[in-house]
């Protein structure tokens, strides 16, 4: 290394270190504005709002520096995850937000709680498995489907809900516009799609073909949850059935 190169390197290092030294030696009365700037640059608005409150709590309870750092980061992560969950629920286009906890399981004593609890973990979405909720009308299949979709959104999975008729209408319009493959690719971005009211309206040949393409396009990529309607009274309960996707 030449003397000129060494001098240039030293000057650069000194220049880079100067802002850090200024931050460390910022006067106490300038700390709020400095932290406001830093949290804005780092895009951590929650820390910008809560650092002072948590600092006071840390002083009162004699937290270590590590405890305080963990507390502010946990607050930021929790709010960011909550915002992400609300965004996923909003973009899922549920007709109404319903939860598993709101479903009255006492009305369906034959519904296996262990199966429902397993589905609520969202593991079937991670494994790209499919779920079918079987039963006659009025038992709450749509409520369960939405509730499990909300659970999936909380677990970090993207979800999209619609009725079978609306799914077919969407694909028909895309097919007529010559962009069916692009539409299927767009739908594949969602880790879970929910197809409601399967069986209410019979499919013609074209609709059946589009429905097949929708299901086949998600083979080993994403999950499908469908609450089809059985018109007979046999088996009067939603029966969750999980299966691996078939080609």
Give structural notes.
This protein is an alpha/beta fold and 247 residues long. It has helices spanning 3-24, 31-41, 45-60, 65-91, 113-120, 123-126, 141-154, 164-176, 180-188, 205-216, and strands spanning 130-134, 159-163, 192-196, 223-226, 239-243. The protein has a 5-stranded mixed beta sheet with strand order 2-3-4-1-5. Helix 3 runs antiparallel to helix 4 and helix 8 packs across helix 9. The longest helix is centred in the first third of the chain and has 27 residues, at 65-91.
Question: How are the elements arranged and paired?
Answer:
Layout: H1 3-24, H2 31-41, H3 45-60, H4 65-91, H5 113-120, H6 123-126, E1 130-134, H7 141-154, E2 159-163, H8 164-176, H9 180-188, E3 192-196, H10 205-216, E4 223-226, E5 239-243
Parallel strand pairs: 1-4, 2-3, 3-4
Antiparallel strand pairs: 1-5
Question: What is the residue-averaged pLDDT?
Answer: 82
Order of helices and strands: HHHHHHEHEHHEHEE
Report on the biggest sheet. 5 strands, mixed
Helix content: 55-70%
What's the oligomerization state? single chain
Low-confidence stretches: 3-27, 230-238, 243-247
Structural class: alpha/beta
